[in-house]
Specification:
7% of the residues lie in helices and 55% in strands. The strands form two sheets. The chain has a 16-stranded antiparallel β-barrel with strand order 1-3-4-5-6-7-8-9-10-11-12-13-14-15-16-19.
Length: 337
C-alpha cells in the first residue's frame, strides 16, 4: 500500500515540476553502512548492514508557490526509507508532513513538524545528529525529550539581526483526561560563526502535573575548527524521573577530510550514569557523496543501561543489563540528491 501511495505522489509531482506558478523539488539521502554492534551482553554482538548511520535515508518533496506581495505557499512531505531492506517507515510521511504560508511575518506550518527543541539540538550537535554517539539518544518516549509533534501549528520568525524565534503547539486531541498537548518555544542566534540557542517544552501528559523539557546549546567556528555542545533535560511528572544529557564536540576539516569527536554524559535521578565518547571520519568524494567511518563507546555504572544512537540505528543494552557497556563501529557511504 505504501509503495502504491509513494508512486502516486511521484506521478503527481512530475507535472508540478514544470509549472510556472509553483515549483516542487524531489530530494533525498541514501546512506548505508556495514556495522559491528555490541551491547556487552551474552549474544549481544552482531554484524549488520544499517541504513542511515550518518543521515537517515529518506525521500522528500518540498514545494513553494508565489502568491505575490511577498507571500508564498510552502509544503514539505518527507518519508524515511531503510536501504538495508527497502522498507519504508510505518508512517509513510512520519519524518515531516506540513503545509503553510511564508512571508515577511515569518513562516507558519501546520501538520507533523520538528519541535522547537529539535532545531537547537541539531544545530548544537557536532555530529549533526548522525554517526554513533549523537544526541539522538536523548529523544523518544515519555521519559525523554520530544523531537517531532503531530497535529501541530508552528511558527518560525525570519532572522532579526541573527535572532530566530520558533514556537510550536501540538494538539493531543483528547476528549477527556489530560490534553496531551505540547507547547514549545525556542530562541536561536546565528551570526558571525557563532551559534547560541535555547528551548523549552511543556507537555500536559498526566493529570498530576506537566512534563518539562529544555535545552541550551552553543557553537563556534574558527577556520577549519568547529566547536559544538549542549545540555538537555527531560523532567517528567513525579520525583526521581529527571533525565539529563551533556555533549561537547569538536570537528576539524582539511581538504576533503573531516574528523569529528564528541564526549557525552547521560544521567538519571537516582544515580544512573553513562559516560560516552565517539569519533568519526568523513571523506568527500564530491559535493553530494562521501564515505565515512564511525565509532562510539559508552560506559554505564551499575545502575545504568544507556545506549548509543546514530541517525538510523541504536545500540542499547537490555533494560535489566545494568552496567553493560555498548559499543559500535561502522563504515559506510552517503549520497544526497
Amino acid at each position: 500500500m505504501q509503495c502504491k501511495l509513494m508512486a502516486a505522489v511521484l506521478a503527481a509531482a512530475i507535472p508540478l515540476c514544470a509549472s510556472a506558478q509553483s515549483s516542487v523539488t524531489i530530494y533525498g539521502v541514501a546512506d548505508a553502512s556495514l556495522a559491528k554492534e555490541d551491547t556487552d551482553v551474552k549474544g549481544g554482538s552482531r554484524t549488520v548492514v544499517n541504513s542511515g548511520n550518518q543521515s537517515t535515508s529518506r525521500v522528500g518533496f518540498r514545494g513553494v508557490e508565489d502568491l505575490s506581495n511577498g507571500l508564498s505557499a510552502v509544503f514539505n512531505l518527507e518519508a524515511g526509507v531503510a536501504l538495508d531492506s527497502g522498507a519504508g517507515d510505518s508512517v509513510l510521511f512520519g519524518r515531516r508532513a506540513v503545509v503553510g504560508l511564508k512571508g515577511g511575518f515569518g513562516t507558519v506550518m501546520i501538520g507533523r513538524e520538528y519541535t522547537p527543541i529539535a532545531d537547537v539540538a541539531n544545530a548544537s550537535d557536532i555530529n549533526g545528529q548522525g554517526f554513533y554517539g549523537s544526541n539522538l539518544s536523548s529523544f523518544g518516549g515519555a521519559t525523554r525529550l520530544t523531537r517531532r509533534i503531530s497535529n501541530s501549528v508552528n511558527y518560525k520568525s525570519n532572522s532579526m539581526g541573527g535572532v530566530i524565534v520558533s514556537a510550536g503547539y501540538g494538539l493531543g486531541e483528547q476528549a477527556t483526561g489530560p490534553s496531551q498537548d505540547l507547547m514549545g518555544l525556542a530562541v536561536e542566534y546565528k551570526a558571525n560563526n557563532i551559534y547560541v540557542g535555547g528551548g523549552y517544552h511543556v507537555v500536559e501528559r498526566l493529570a498530576s502535573g506537566d512534563d518539562k523539557e529544555m535545552i541550551v546549546g552553543a557553537g563556534f567556528t574558527i577556520g577549519p575548527v568547529e566547536i559544538r555542545g549542549n545540555y538537555m533535560a527531560a523532567d517528567p511528572t513525579g520525583k526521581g524521573n529527571k533525565y539529563e544529557q551533556i555533549n561537547a564536540g569538536l570537528s576539524y576539516t582539511f581538504g576533503n577530510n573531516k574528523i569529528y569527536g564528541n564526549v557525552q554524559q547521560n544521567k538519571l535521578e537516582g544515580g544512573a550514569k553513562g559516560n560516552g565518547a565517539s569519533l568519526a571520519y568523513s571523506y568527500a568524494l564530491s559535493k553530494r557523496t562521501n564515505v565515512y567511518a564511525s565509532y562510539a563507546m559508552l560506559r554505564n555504572n551499575d545502575k545504568a543501561t544507556f545506549g548509543i544512537n546514530s541517525a538510523g540505528a541504536n545500540v542499547t543494552p537490555p533494560a535489566t543489563a545494568f552496567g553493560a557497556d555498548p559499543s559500535a563501529l561502522a563504515v559506510g557511504v552517503r549520497h544526497s540528491f
